[in-house]
Amino acid sequence: MARMKFLVDAERCIECNGCVTACKNENEVPWGVNRRRVVTINDGVIGAEKSISVACMHCSDAPCMAVCPVDCFYRTDDGVVLHDKDLCIGCGYCFYACPFGAPQFPQAGAFGLRGKMDKCTFCAGGPEADRSDAEFKKYGRNRLAEGKLPACAEMCSTKALLGGDGDVIADIYRERVVRRGKGSEVWGWGTAYGPGKAGAAAGGKS
Amino acid sequence: MKRAALALAALAALGLAGCGESDQVVVYKQGKYQGKPDGRPWDSAPLAQEQRGGTWNKGDKSSWESALNARNLTQNEYKRIYNQ
Amino acid sequence: MLLTRKTSGPAVPQARLARGLSGVLAKTMDRRAFLQRSGVTLGAGAAAAQLPFSIIGEARAQAKGAAKVEVKRSVCTHCSVGCAIDAVVENGVWVRQEAVFDSPLNLGAHCAKGAAVREHGITHDSHRLKYPMKLEGGKWVKVSWDQAYDEISKKVLKIREESGPDALFILGSSKHNNEQSYLLRKWLGLWGSNNVDHQARICHSTTVAGIANTWGYGAMTNSYNDEQNSKCLLFLGSNAAEAHPVSMLHTLHAKENGAKVIVADPRFTRTAAKADKFVRIRSGSDVAFQFGLLYHIFKNGWEDKKYIHDRVYGMDQIKTEVMAKYTPQAVEEVTGVSEKDMYDTAKMLADNRPGFIIWAMGQTQHTNGNAVTRASAVLMLALGNAGITGGGCNIYRGHDNVQGATDLGPNAQSLPGYYGLAPGAWKHWARVWNVDLDWIKKRFAAESMMGKNGFTVSRWADAVTEKIENVDQDSNVRAVIFWGHAPNSQSRGPDQLEAMKKLDLMVVIDPYPSASAAMFAMVRKDGAYLLPAATQFECAGSVTASNRSLQWREQVIEPLFESRTDHMIMYQLAQKLGFADQFVGKAGGKQNIKLVKGKGGMDEPEMEDTLREVNSGTWTIGYTGQTPERLKAHMRNMHVFDVKTLRARGGKDKETGYDLTGDYFGLPWPCWGTANEKHPGTPNLYDISKNVMDGGCTFRARYGVEKDGVNLLAEDGSHSVGSDITTGYPEFDHGFLKKLGWWDELSDAEKQEAEGKNWKTDLSGGIQRVALKHSCVPFGNAKARAVVWNFPDKVPLHREPLYSPRPDLVAKWPTHPDKKTLYRLPALFKTIQDKSVADKDSEKYPLILTSGRLVEYEGGGEETRSNPWLAELMQDNFVELNPKSAADRGIRNGEDVWVSSPSGAKIKVKALVTERVAADTVFIPFHFSGWWQGQDMLGYYPEGSAPIVRGDAVNTITTYGYDIVTQMQETKTTLCQVAKA
Asked: What is the spatial distance between Cα C652 and Cα C661, in angstroms, rounded to a whole number?
């Protein structure tokens, strides 16, 4: 059974922001809302600088779902965490709960009130008829229903960002780890998908 | 704010230290919109060929999954480089 | 690359991620502020903020109903990697963009710019120039195309009458496709001047001059893909992770498979973060670094002696100079790199062969740029790393078509195809163009002017303002056309402003009117016209990537607003100025280039026919085999090309039945002979391990057969595989064919044409055909020249920058003496350097100022800063400042600072405190414009066409300094001071 996940290969991410604009382009995300962004740690420190692309990881045990007071989140059959903007009250609890800073709140109205929460949908739209205009307007494209994968991962400049079935992308990553002969840890997987068997994602050290 | 910062600190420690895949018991929760359920991706018909989407049999989950898995290999340049 | 993100230390990302709501809201506030600043009406801004996905409305609404969906294949216009794009067009509206996984160049991958190109097709809230405009009483007013053409042509003709054809200067563009670039050079030739130039001047002119003089061609020797076959990649003067992000797919793949990556740079760049070894050098010390490596290579006997014996001339002279001048102590003094680091780097290069040296503007934009690039070639030659698979000089071009525009387009020193400006070159092209040579001669001020290099883009302002007695033509430049070129790309901003004050006429032809319009309006009340050009997504044509592969772009959408294609504008201006027939080669009952209906049913030259004319004349660099039909077949069948070799293993194009087997993707030039020869293109230059018909190549015989009694041809036994001549040989001409006894292999028709000609000028292609038949390379088989005796520094020499931070080193490594005339203008060297030392600039301005690229933006940046998806990522210009330099000046991260230089100008930017730069260096990106020394120029832009993000241009403060061979500007090393604003 497919279980959709993201994986960022920090050895490859060069902070080109291709994933960010691919998302903006495909989902017509407005200015000020960043479903995905790239973070660089230890900037300028020789030997320690790493860049990582961050968005909703579609967690197994998603904290956002747990804290939502109106229960607007749901999980699809293939493991994508989505939400219903008609139910969302824009309270922002999910943002505090999220370890990845994924939920975004566009400003609405003159007094700086928060609008409905917006976040990465794994390019899977939301609870409207698939590929309908209504779905597109509220949630963006539904690429999964077109037999495509998220635009960010498909357009990543160095194929650092992988998106798709967890087993398939772990296989892709595993091959790289074997070639490199070092480093099998995957950023964020423990938090998003649970501790589990160490090194399973990348098949352990080579 | 503080909580998020703490969570992140923990993440930095845990997340970078090594991790793996837990048993994936995904509880499927039907989404809804004004009482109507969210559609499942394989219930849509594939796009016309020229629009570069995958091909599967409408309503057949496993054929949709194979289409996506095949497409996933475009994210693996090793396949394009060595297995062509 | 958000400014806020770029501080050092691990605390930052946490803070950023955890910043949460307040951060998001703050951003939204920024946006509102920005909307007000950029003149978007409050209503529209507020509406957009409230309705997250409202912007999709327009395009989708039109697409309703019986949608006609087409997918057009194009190529990204933002760098030279050549990333293919599938544009989904619904009823004429570009609605989506899909990755092209089949492309062997980018495999579907894109950087921020490539993933955002669809924005070009979005019409609401567009920052494009929408209709022709003219400056009248200090205001930009809308005019019709006809009025604009009438007034412009009248003025231009009047100036021509008063001051001659050389009073016009055109700054052409590397963003034009091959056909348009070629047509623009022809256009100016027919106008009667050589005063045309383009971005290559300030991009890779020193590379082309230096490298072509070393071994034949000035192009990148191999492909990005070929890095996968390499064991060592030395980046010196390239930040590929930001400038050519998709190339890093190949680089990191190579690294994953064992290749060593070394980055030598004044900055710890994003590329350096991925390297095995980072070496920090002082900006402007490149030759000392390269020769410092050679010192260890020679000392330890790591050079490839057989290779040098067979294929290199003059390496002994290099060795003598290296061992005498570039001792470890001297090198450390100049570069700041320790002996151990130099040794380790040299050993890494020697132990891991084949290897590449990779560069971009970091090597070229120096007053001794021609020497720096040659030193790179010499380093590779010593290691035996040139002309092989997995090794060579990968010279990353900047603009998407700067390679093609250099090959075919508007260059001040050459007609298309590097034919130069000699009488023979004019004769050749007049024949190709089907234009009477005598008629062309009469178009010029004098016949002698035909052979004289024109002005360069780097010094267009001096061409306007220099005292006439110092100018090598009868008049100053009085009219300037910025045809896809931004002034903030050139150094010495204030001097350009002075030139604008003096101009009789300025015309800007551009999709984005660029800073030139705003600068002009800041100091003038009238005298300028803006014409909206279409983008490359609104026309078809071929584009040459950095690896010399050509790709054909389909037209994605019709030209938006009132814009017209560049070739339509050229043709219409030619009509107004009276040489339209010559422009399309109409004479004697023949017309080379047919006219087709373009926008609004108006005539424009057909791009396919234009390429065919290019094919018929560009023999020098093998642009002869790439017919539109072959290129289109390649674009339709990208999947058959292997990623590591770029070669098609098989496959037939369904549409035409064309057999792709054996072709290299995009037929990388030289693609010898006519298309009938079915030459597959040359993936790696000078690679003798292949037959020439399999893409093999030798070093070019360009400088005679001997020098002072030393053989310049390749030694016996060194030749491309299968060659019927197994020694070195000169270039092919009619005499050589006869001597070889191969003359009779020509047909009678070919003989008639080839008599008295050589491989470059024989329009029948017979000479090349026979050479290829014998598996010989038409341009001969010679040695590469490590010593270029026709340059001021025969052996590359370190020379301190004009504004040097080290007066003590100026004494040891002084710059060149001044030159009275170079590209029609005086060029100062020693005068400036001596003055800088006497003025104690290095004390008043103690920081080295260097500039470079950001991933989000391209070139002058008007286009990319007008794209909201990109603009949001980098909203301010900034200066990278080491924590020590910041602390010493009481500057905190994010504060406004003034950066001033010895030129007297200053700019206001944000401080970015980071350890990326050392304490003696600061860095400022060069993509910004729209502020002038701290003031927003918004009011001077035509309404609605100011870019979203504006900032002070670094080139407002860059100083005087030009390469002695090509007039490349020095923008990588000068001096500055930073102070809190």
From this structure: 8
